[in-house]
């Protein structure tokens, strides 16, 4: 079964074609991040205006690439052949999946209304996918092993930090969440405090990597919030405040490369220590076979290596999507739709900025 997945919950516009939930045929993502950089964060209006312009070209490109991979001899398409692209989709796509929340309302509406229109025009089933469920299912895109149930999923994105217990496909039990900021938000805010660019995660990672032996001797110590709380909840706003206090107590931090690297390094370690400890504890408590991680922060190299080490110590298998599929994309939406296939009447599907796990 070939599913066209569409993703527009934040500033990315993604479309992808995935076969049987695992085989990637095409993945196209257009991001307004360069436009957003000058504002230091996502401006919803800027994101939505850009998405209106790019959504159809992005979908067309995903269809063209999929047709090339499938290489059905007479059907090598190019972007000027609008009606041929449509005909190819009508013949080859089995369903359309759209991430209808949570996210920014303007951005969601563009994806949802486009997906509804295509489903009606092409007479295809429409599947509504929770964006966070999509982040989990990015881990099924691979030719090697796949995660085994029961599993713990850690979702670490710009808006969420959630621990989910899954006993089977489509069964999501929220066992812990952040009480305030998400991990991604903390990366973005701390990057801003240090005078770094947006998005903050990759910037913090880059600056932390520049830490030299001399810099590592600077004593920067940050808290590991709620690390011993005995539950699976998180809190990152105190950590952000600790960085604010540090920067206020020593203004040289934002001007000194060494000091900035030392703070970025310690901040990243603090976030990763908490995420890893709680995830591993949850995997042990619920006797899970696998740990899966998803969301933009899953692209973080330190998180990937520390989680892998900790999982090996307790003899669990850990899965991360590729770095490209950790951040928002249409592939994960198509993959999730295959495993959690819930058809919906296109006229009934609503964009839902606050969508919860169901
Ligand atoms: O999942 P995502 O692409 O969008 C949302 O659903 O929010 O996540 C975006 C978040 C941003 O906060 C960004 O700073 C963070 O993921 N991020 C990272 C890295 N790459 C992206 N955080 C830490 N390290 C990274 N390499
Ligand atoms: Zn996301």
Would you give an account of this structure?
With 358 residues, the chain is α/β, with parallel strands linked by helices. It has 2 domains: 2-138 and 325-344, Nucleotidyltransferase, domain 5 (2-Layer Sandwich), CATH 3.30.420.40; 146-320, Nucleotidyltransferase, domain 5. The protein has 13 helices and 11 strands. It has helices at 33-37, 44-70, 82-92, 105-122, 131-137, 183-193, 200-209, 213-216, 237-249, 257-285, 301-313, 323-326, 331-339, and strands spanning 2-7, 12-19, 23-31, 95-101, 126-130, 151-156, 161-166, 173-177, 290-294, 317-319, 343-344. A 6-stranded mixed sheet has the order 3-2-1-4-5-11, sandwiched between helices. A 5-stranded mixed sheet has the order 8-7-6-9-10, sandwiched between helices. Helix 5 packs across helix 13. It is globular, with a radius of gyration of 21 Å. The two termini are 24 Å apart. The structure holds 5'-O-[(R)-(carboxyoxy)(hydroxy)phosphoryl]adenosine (KG4) and zinc ion. 5'-O-[(R)-(carboxyoxy)(hydroxy)phosphoryl]adenosine binds at residues 10, 157-159, 184, 187-188, 199-202, 205, 295-297, 299-300, 327-328.
